[in-house]
Amino acid sequence: MINKRLLIKNLLAHNDENSFYDKKLKLNIGEKEGKAKFLKHICALANSNPKNNSYIVIGVEDEDNQIIGVDFFDDSKIQNLVNAYLSNPPIVAYENIPFPHLSDNKVVGLVSIRSQEGKLCSLRKNIWKYYGGSVFFRDGSISMPKVFDIEIKDVNSEIVSSIESHAQNNIELTLDGVFDFMNSRQDYNPNYKVFKEYFVVCWAAKEKRVNGEVYYSRVDIALINEQVKLFYSQFDEITISITDEEFKIVEYVQLGLQDSYDYYPLEEVIIKFKNNVSYDIESRLLFDPPQFDKKTLYHLYNNNNALIEKLKKGTALTPKEEKDLINLPATYLLCYFNDFNEAKEKLEEAKPPLKSYPNDKVYILYKESMRILRKIRYNS
Hints:
The model has no long low-confidence stretch (mean pLDDT 89). The protein is 34% helix and 30% strand. By secondary structure, the protein is α+β, with helices and mostly antiparallel strands. Strands 1, 2, 3, 5 and 6 form a five-stranded mixed beta sheet that branches. It has a four-stranded antiparallel beta sheet with strand order 10-11-12-13, with helices on one face.
């Protein structure tokens, strides 16, 4: 089994990007340009490596390989995006890899790409400035379009196999990972469980009881064998259930209006550990959007728009408006779920003023709302 943290170190040792791996400071697939560039790189790496894995490392300075990290990216449905835009799409996985020197909310993103061997990957439809039918290959460290017939060559299998073989996990790395997790998460009751006498899952969370139900917030869950952070959140409420073969998470979102909130199940994730030293992660969207009175929503929607305009103009907010601003991202989200289609665009447009607002909590809540929106959109 590959230790993903060690794999990233071995990839970065090949200081220059090349035809089997790329590195990025950050990834932005929430905007059309960022999404198009991501798909271009996926297509190019898949075509340039027909018989081995390709990788994109995210959260690394380009010039000196300094690992600065990115926010935890909770998106198990990135494959749906790839399938929607690419013909002969590769198998793509996004994993969050913690590093000891990074803060708890920062990780290094690792995108793994496995092509459909022998099949040329291309854009299925237009996106941004790239046309449907375009084919991309890696030319050194650059993803380039090709408009002519080209033979797919395998030139990297040996070197990629060598990199992966030098990143294999061992007992020492596993034990070090468990001790590191247990010591660093003393603030939130760290636990661990061994599955199938091999896999070690560690988790820490703050327990919360609501109407007799036990929920967990500030959750940190890691598969130590691969050094993969499976789940992380500063706010979410989840439930955890464990058997000898499964680790199940049900994530909830707290939604409501005017200080009256309820918990709604968002997604179920089940990690199934098997006897052949492998595991599967299955996810299922559970969300059924709550419906609210349209007149109330219109009032809140217009109030949100007025607040954003005030922020853009630099106008000071009243104490009541500051409280409304805290609820603004979730309110826009509820409006969108209740058929205010333009609320999604308004939420996206609100990013710059909310990001620059002095109260950091406002932008954290904005990112949380965007994460929920992205998850639901990719599952649709």
